[in-house]
Amino acid sequence: MVSLSFPFGVTLFLAVIGFFAGRAKATSSVNGNFRLLQALPKAYGQTVLFSTLIPASLLLFGWAFVVRILGPDFAVLPDFVFQGLVIAIATIGAGVSYHLIKPSQRARAISERWIMGLLIAASALAIVTTIGIVLSMLSESANFFRQHSWTDFFFGAVWAPNFRGGSELSILPLLWGTLYISLISLIVAVPIGLFAAIYLSEYAGTRLRSVAKPAIEILAGIPTIVYGLFALITVGPMLRDFFAQPLGLGGSSSSVMTAGLVMGVMLIPFVSSLSDDIINAVPQAMRDGSLGLGATKSETIRQVVVPAALPGIVGAVLLAASRAIGETMIVVLGAGAAARFDLNPFEAMTTVTVKIVSQLTGDTDFASPETLVAFALGLSLFVITLGLNIVALVIVRKYREQYE
Q: What CA–CA distance (Å, rounded) separates 277 from 304?
C-alpha cells in the first residue's frame, strides 16, 4: 500500500515555504513599489503554492486510489521510489514557478487557472463517483441475473429468500411497500410543509418567523433512529388502539401508516425550508404589481407567488420524495419486515432499502443470489429515482416555458 503521510507532508512543507518565498521575491523585485507588479504579492506566492502542491498531490492520491482499487500487485514501483518521485515533482514545480516570478508576470491569472482546475476536478469527482457506483451495481447485478431468473425478479409476486436454495426474489412486493409508505409520507409532509412556508414567508411577522422557522428546522436534525423509536413506542400503539383494532383493520403496531406518518413529520422541514427560501426569492415587484391591480393578498399568493415559485417547489417535493424512498430505519422499526401486496395501511410491510440491508448483513455467502439480489434492488431503485428526476425536470421545464 502506498504511504501517503511522508510525501504529502514534504509536499505541503515545500508549498508553504514556496508561498512565502514567492511573495518575498515579488516584493523585493520592485523595491516596495507595488504599482510595478501586475498582481498583489500574495498572488505570486500562490502561483508557487499551487504549482508545488497540486501536481504532486494529484499524482500521490490518484495513484494510491488506483492501487487500492486494483490491488497491491499493481504497484510496480517500490514505495520509496514512488515517494521520491512525488517529492521530485513537488520540488520541480516549486523551483520552476519560483524562477518564473517577475513583476510583469500575470500571477493572479495563473492562480485563478489553478483554482479553476480544482473546481473542475471537484465537479468531475461527483460524476466519476456516480459512474463508479453505477458500474459496481451493474457488475454485481449481472452476476445475480446469471444465477437467478430476471423474469422472476421483475414480474414475480413473492419475496421469499432461502439461502438453502429455491428462493423467490421478486422486487414487486418491496416496490409496492416503498411507494405506499412514501406516498403516505408525502401526503403528510407536502401540504403541511408548503402551507407553513407560505405562512412564514407571506404572513408571519419578523419575531414569529425568527422563532418558528428554526423550530421547524430542528426536525431535520433529529436522527432517524429517534424517529424510528418514536414510531415503535408511541405512534404505532396509538394507531393500533384507536384506529386499527376498533375498525377491525389489524392488531399490529407495525404498519404502513405508522411509518408513513412519522416519515412525513421528518420530511416537513425539507419541504418547508426549501419552499420558504424559494417563495422569498420571488421578486417583490410581482407582489406589488398584483396588489396594485386590485388583487387581495391571498389571490396574489395563489395566482402570482406560488406559480412563480412552482419550479422550485417541485424540486423541494422531489427532494422529499427521494428522501422518503431511501429511508430505512423508520421503516424497520415502524412498518415491519413483511413483503406483501396489501391495500390495508394498518398492515405491516417493508421497502426495498430494508431488504438491501437485510440481505447484506449476517453470515451470508456473498456469491449467492440471495446476497447479490441486494445490488439488483439497489440498481432498480437508482433507475426509479432517476426516472422521477427526469419526469420532474420535464414538468418544470414545460411550466416554465408557459410562464415565461
A: 16
